[in-house]
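Dear support,

I submitted the protein below through the web form. The confirmation email said the job was done, but the results page showed an empty box. After a refresh the structure appeared. I'm attaching both so you can tell me whether what I see now is the final result or a partial one.
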Amino acid sequence: MILRPFKSTIVIGFFILLNGLVGLGAWSHRAKEDWGQDSDAILAEVPSEMKELQYFHLDQGQPSLSLAADSMRSLGEQMASFERPRGTYASGEQKETMTYQAKQAEYVKARGSLRMLGDVELDQPGSKYRAAELVYYHRKDQLYGKGGVSMEHLMEKSGETITINAVNMKARPKQKWALFRGQVDGVVRPRLKFQAPLFLKSEEMELQGLKGLINLKNDVFFQRGEMKVTARNGDVFLEQANKKLKYFILNDDVKVTENLLDANGRPMVRQAFAERMEGFGQDKIVLSGAPRVLQGKDVMKGYRITMREKLEFIEIEDAMSDVQVKKDENKKKEN
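What the results page shows now:
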């Protein structure tokens, strides 16, 4: 009599345990189904891929970006990356359209930015940009470049072509404005082939295309023909090269070296020192700020000195009547 209740208890316990396991299995299966739904939501954020596509984007109802690419990876509608992108970039308010190509690109909708990497080329009417990396924010019209930056710009009025190379750059393409920094060098090529190009170097160079102006800062180097000049700062007025206006101004610790021929056709070196140098037209140069010129065996000083490139001609202005033409004492010692 004592064993029956014990056996019944065991059987009842077994069925309770079995029902518990079944219930646990059902709960686990439901949990897996619920996790599957959550995972689907997570997987929706995983980048999707497309091959050989055409991509278009409207910004506030206006055409903004269009491109073709070998492939695209997108994360929802917020960001997309492209392989070998090439296409156009435009603003609804801007008639000019930029074209571009690169090895890779990334478009972020919230920022309105297009980041391009690898042999980047971006062109717009009158300007071409080249770099290892360019990032363009079309809403702000801001362009940033680094790594072998190069820009070529055509001045519409004068027909001069400007090429500038640097380590870094920031620009506003629609405003024809750009600022270059780090080992900057540039060349201005006149429309007329017989005119000498102008070579420029500085640590910082600013191009104001709409004003036809180049600003030079720190360690300036300026060369036109046989004339080489160094200074600390300077300005070059591109649209005035063929007018009777100031073509360039160089300031602070100006040093000039020029190779020319004397009246007898013999080679001669002319050197000049001043605090300020102004260029007019194609050959007139005016020195001021304690100017001094060493030409051949002569040393000339005055209040203001005017020279002509390639010519021995020198005009000296001096209200204090302190003009000096004498032998260079250093050369006397050498002889």
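Response: this is the final, complete result; the empty box was a page-load delay. The longest strand covers residues 246-261.
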